[in-house]
Write a structure and sequence with these properties.
It is a single chain. By secondary structure, the chain is mainly α. Among the domains are: 59 residues, DNA polymerase, domain 1; 35 residues, no CATH class. It is 42% helix and 4% strand. It contains eight helices and two strands, in the order αααααααββα. A two-stranded parallel sheet has the order 1-2. The longest helix has 30 residues. The protein is elongated, with a radius of gyration of 44 Å.
Length: 236
């Protein structure tokens, strides 16, 4: 092979000029094949070729191993599956975007004192036991519904420690918020659209009667949305 052709091939490599190409040629590397077979140590011995130069040259000359056809096929299949998954994910995200945003439920206009009383009522409710009728667990004929205990020998009547609690005034919530819905609204039962006219949306919320049909419920819901009235039950 002619020297000019070899130098031309060598200078085609990145970071290798004409001077360094001639140095390599003069030191016995008169073909690309010989240069491929050389190690970093062999190239470092040449004056004017640094370790970095040698490393860069050999990196460029390394031939990438071709993957066998079976592995290449598997790789192609894996990439296809990955692309399909990404497409499905994008579709799901599009569907999620089209969904309606959550609307915050309407809150009543309450004073600070009323809000505090609602919190107190909630705490009382948590510590209030379930009041059952005396000896409801002993006889099948006795229901759980509360009845005031009586009788001379009644242990529950005289409030012995090991007997259940009696209904007492101390378990009652604050008077100001008594009978209100947990949200703070005053509940009002309605059965038709005209009943909504008498509702104060700032203080009252409606509960649709169980006997009202679906068609009428939808009309009530539409009108209530216009008047900004909260419906406590919307089971259509």
């Amino acid at each position: 092979m002619v020297k000019e052709e070899v130098i031309k091939e060598l200078t085609a490599l990145k970071g290798l000029g004409k001077v360094k190409a001639e140095l390599l040629y003069n030191n016995g590397f008169d073909s690309i094949d010989k240069l491929k077979a050389a190690s970093i140590e062999d190239l470092k011995k040449i004056k004017g070729i640094s370790e970095k130069n040698a490393n860069d040259i050999l990196k460029q000359l390394k031939v990438e191993k071709k993957e066998p056809p079976k592995k290449a096929k598997e790789k192609a299949e894996a990439t296809e599956i990955k692309e399909e998954k990404e497409k499905k994910k994008e579709e799901v995200e599009i569907v999620e975007d089209t969904e309606e945003e959550y609307k915050v439920k309407q809150k009543p206009d309450l004073s600070k004192d009323e809000m505090m009383k609602l919190v107190i009522r909630k705490k009382i409710k948590k510590r209030t036991p379930q009041f059952h009728r005396e000896e409801w667990f002993r006889y099948k004929r006795i229901s759980k519904s509360w009845r005031k205990p009586d009788g001379i020998t009644s242990k529950m009547r005289i409030n012995l420690k090991y007997r259940p609690s009696l209904v007492r005034v101390g378990f009652r919530g604050p008077k100001e918020v008594r009978g209100l819905h947990p949200s703070g609204f005053q509940e009002v039962m309605i059965y038709n659209v005209t009943d909504l006219k008498a509702i104060n949306p700032k203080k009252q919320a409606v509960r649709i009667g169980s006997t009202v049909g679906t068609k009428k419920r939808l009309k009530i819901a539409k009108k209530a949305e216009e008047l900004k009235i909260r419906i406590l039950n919307m089971q259509v």
